[in-house]
Amino acid sequence: MTTTAAVNPTQQRTAEVVADIFGVINERLVRHSVTYPEYQAAKAWLIKVGEAGEWPLLLDVFFEHTIEKLASERRQGSSGCIEGPYYVPGAPELSSPATLPQRPDEPGDVLVFTGTVRDLDGNPLPGSVVDIWQADALGYYSQFHPDPPQWNLRANVTTGADGRFEITTVVPAPYEIPKEGPTGQLIRAAGWHHWRPAHLHMMVRAQGCRTLTSQLFFAGGEYVDEDIASAVKPELTLELAHLGDGRYAAEYDFTLDPA
Ligand code: MBD
Ligand code: FE
Q1: Is the peptide bond before 146 cis (omega within 30 degrees of 0)?
Q2: Ligand 1 within 6 A of CB of 248
Q3: ipTM greater than 0.90
Q4: Quick one: DSSP state of residue 96?
Q5: Which ligand neighbours the alpha carbon of 56 most closely?
Q6: Measured in angstroms, how far is the CA atom of residue 215 from the centroid of ligand 1?
Q7: Domain range for 100
Q8: What is the rounded average pLDDT of the residues 114-141?
Q9: What is the pTM of this model?
Q10: Is residue 96 domain-shared with residue 180, that is, in the same domain?
Q11: Atom 6, ligand 1: which residue's CA is nearest?
């Protein structure tokens, strides 16, 4: 790689970071004595990742956790977590207490998810929004799987005067990376497992605050200790309580940093 004089800071940053990453890749090709057949297989596979539309999936599973941990170092409030590939803006706007859009026969156990959104001083943030999305009890996300209707288990829930939210939904299933696609093929070729533990996704927004993108997991759930996306943090684990009528409850309070 030739190095030309950088003319502005952005160009300098691009040149430094990309040259370093490409340099590391080239070193590793040497370390592993990568052959022409391996290079050609990798090239064909990378082309398939694009053709299958799996770049968001592949990058978010294997790399977003690093970027997110770096970004979290600059936060004092609640921990964040990766956004992943399945967020869709513009979900229905509901007010707490809210039930997420779902089918009349929505499978799974009912979950009542409650909490309060506050600032760093502990003041509740009325009118803040919990933009929540999740897989259903079969592990399918609406708009990324043909079965669930468009906004199934997605909503922007506005908190009440006390900054509190109560969101009725269902307990999600663990998520299996699709096996048919190039990402799934790679995982199988390496002998890894295809799973993320069950999780809820959310972006929490409030006037004057830095938006928090996070996920919450379930204590003791399958794959919590072996997330293929390396995104689980201990402080993001919910304890599921029994409400006694077959429903489950979980509570989590969000603390937002100033903008
Ligand atoms: C998911 O549901 C997810 O949250 C991430 C980060 C990657 C793949 C599927
Ligand atoms: Fe997810």
Answers
A1: no
A2: no
A3: yes
A4: S
A5: 1
A6: 10
A7: 65-256
A8: 98
A9: 0.94
A10: yes
A11: 84
